[in-house]
């Protein structure tokens, strides 16, 4: 029998700070900021307060963009161009909320990101059809021509061919990451996580399909990351946490062959170089990009894909764990390994730890379905002998398929409709964004009513997810946000613009469910 205390054992980071337990609220895109980006607001505060009440060992924010001109889906949190007491204040409040009450030991981590070539034309923060920056002038989606003309047209409309970065552009990006880190430091965060995955800029320099430069940044793909890491370490205290979210590869996890094996070997070699710097405190294992977006898929709709993805990341992290244990002595403190994805039952959590797949366990979508998960597990371990064999999901995943697509003759017709995988994968992301918005809204209403629950009631308290919302409903609700921050000030103008944006996006997506875009 596995000890229930395993989940709640402390973990020491190389910088000297302690993670109070193994459960990490992984970064998720909240889509809560003002349109075209801004600081955290009351919706972020409400959402993160729902998590901070429940004894997470670490809470990582959604990606905060270091460049206002390189947003992802338009409602990103953004690092201010100038750090002043006024511009820092909203981030200070977010850090205080994540830390919770004085009895909480939760670590607050700010995830920093630059979208690079994945910053779209419409909501990327630039004028329409102004090129984003990237390692090379390789358009996002250029490698997806095998998906057909509709996919190609979609990617051409939404993603501009990027501008290859000059030396000055690269220097500026390093400075922007440093400014983001100083924002985190001055705001009271315990550290930052650099987003080196999912096809964002730092990952683009590591990928041969997006980095075809002929200078030192091609010969040494880790050069930009190493410059960023060194520049950050030069300006922060020794106990400031520095983590990375790292891509194992930008291929589909369902593919097999020499190319995939070669990418895995290259990723392990890259990670071992990163470990050798002895400046990184934790490494989160991830993979894929927006051209192969398995990391965005809904587990209930893609059981085989999700299982393959989960198994691959677990296998990869296990190899990294084994290498770390063999290379470091007992007196050394190697970076901790954080495994995220597919951990949806107590058995999954205990298996990952007992099989030595990771030191820390990242909970993403299940943290939205069960924001009180650590409280629930802590309560259960006091009354149940063994949770390690419990395969009951924390909460059910949503069914985002269209019901009529499973009936004849529509099933046959739907099977032959051209698909765009990025849109399909994004439907699941939209559903969880709507649930986070709903969770924040409920928390705001609860606080306004003065209906705060006692600590002893929190293990039983959670807001039921609204499973009546399907894929199409999630897309509409995500973009038609009537309580958006900007609409509180300029109702008619911004509502009109939002409706136009929504109609354009709806025409591109056709309201398709994620089940239909494999």
UniProtKB/TrEMBL annotation:
> Where is the NADH:flavin oxidoreductase/NADH oxidase N-terminal domain positioned along the sequence?
19-380
Q: Which UniProt keywords apply?
A: Flavoprotein, FMN, Membrane, Oxidoreductase, Transmembrane, Transmembrane helix
Domain of life, per lineage: Eukaryota
Would the keyword Nucleus turn up in this protein's UniProt record?
A: no
- Family note: Belongs to the NADH:flavin oxidoreductase/NADH oxidase family.
Q: Which InterPro entries match?
A: Aldolase_TIM, NADH_flavin_oxidoreductase, OxRdtase_FMN_N
Transmembrane segments annotated in the record for this chain: 492-509
Please give the Pfam families that the UniProt record associates with this protein: Oxidored_FMN
Which protein are we looking at? Answer: NADH:flavin oxidoreductase/NADH oxidase N-terminal domain-containing protein
């Amino acid at each position: 029998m596995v000890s229930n205390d395993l989940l709640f054992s402390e973990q020491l980071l190389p910088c000297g700070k302690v993670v109070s337990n193994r459960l990490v609220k992984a970064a998720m895109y909240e889509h809560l900021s003002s349109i075209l980006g801004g600081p955290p607001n009351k919706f972020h505060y409400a959402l993160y307060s729902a998590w901070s009440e429940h004894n997470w060992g670490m809470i990582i924010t959604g990606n905060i963009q270091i460049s206002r001109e390189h947003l992802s889906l338009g409602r990103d949190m953004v690092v201010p161009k100038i750090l002043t007491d006024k511009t820092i204040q909203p981030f200070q409040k977010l850090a205080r909320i994540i830390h919770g009450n004085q009895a909480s030991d939760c670590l607050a981590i700010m995830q920093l990101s630059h979208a690079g070539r994945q910053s779209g034309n419409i909501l990327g923060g630039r004028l329409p059809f102004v090129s984003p920056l990237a390692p090379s002038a390789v358009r996002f989606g250029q490698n997806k021509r095998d998906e057909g003309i509709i996919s190609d047209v979609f990617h051409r409309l939404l993603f501009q061919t990027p501008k290859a970065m000059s030396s000055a552009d690269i220097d500026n990006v390093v400075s922007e990451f440093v400014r983001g880190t100083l924002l985190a430091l001055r705001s009271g965060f315990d550290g930052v996580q650099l987003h080196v995955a999912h096809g964002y800029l730092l990952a683009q320099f590591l990928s041969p399909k997006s980095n075809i430069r002929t200078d030192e940044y091609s010969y040494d793909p880790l050069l930009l990351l190493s410059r960023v890491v060194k520049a950050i370490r030069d300006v922060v205290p020794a106990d400031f946490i520095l983590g990375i979210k790292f891509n194992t590869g930008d291929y589909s996890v369902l593919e097999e062959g020499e190319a995939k094996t070669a990418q895995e070997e290259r990723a392990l070699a890259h990670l071992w170089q990163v470990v050798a710097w002895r400046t990184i405190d934790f490494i989160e294992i991830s993979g894929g990009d927006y051209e192969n977006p398995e990391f965005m898929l809904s587990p209930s709709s893609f059981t085989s894909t999700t299982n393959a993805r989960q198994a691959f990341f677990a296998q990869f992290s296990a190899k990294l764990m084994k290498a770390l244990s063999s290379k470091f002595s007992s007196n050394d403190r190697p970076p901790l390994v954080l495994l995220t994805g597919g951990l949806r039952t107590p058995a999954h959590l205990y298996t990952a730890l007992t099989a030595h797949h990771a030191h820390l366990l990242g909970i993403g979508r299940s943290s939205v379905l069960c924001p009180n998960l650590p409280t629930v597990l802590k309560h259960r371990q006091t009354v149940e002998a063994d949770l390690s064999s419990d395969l009951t999901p924390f909460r059910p995943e949503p069914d985002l398929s269209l019901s009529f697509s499973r009936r004849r003759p529509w099933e046959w017709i739907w099977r032959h409709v051209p698909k765009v995988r990025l849109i399909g994968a994004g439907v699941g992301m939209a559903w969880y964004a709507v649930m986070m918005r709903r969770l924040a809204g409920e928390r705001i209403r609860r606080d306004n009513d003065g209906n705060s629950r006692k600590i002893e009631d929190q293990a039983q308290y959670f807001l039921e997810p609204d499973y009546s919302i399907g894929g199409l409903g999630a897309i509409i609700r995500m973009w038609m946000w009537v309580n958006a921050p900007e609409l509180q000030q300029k109702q008619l103008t911004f509502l009109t613009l939002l409706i136009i944006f929504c109609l354009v996006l709806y025409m591109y997506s056709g309201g398709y469910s994620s089940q239909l875009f494999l």
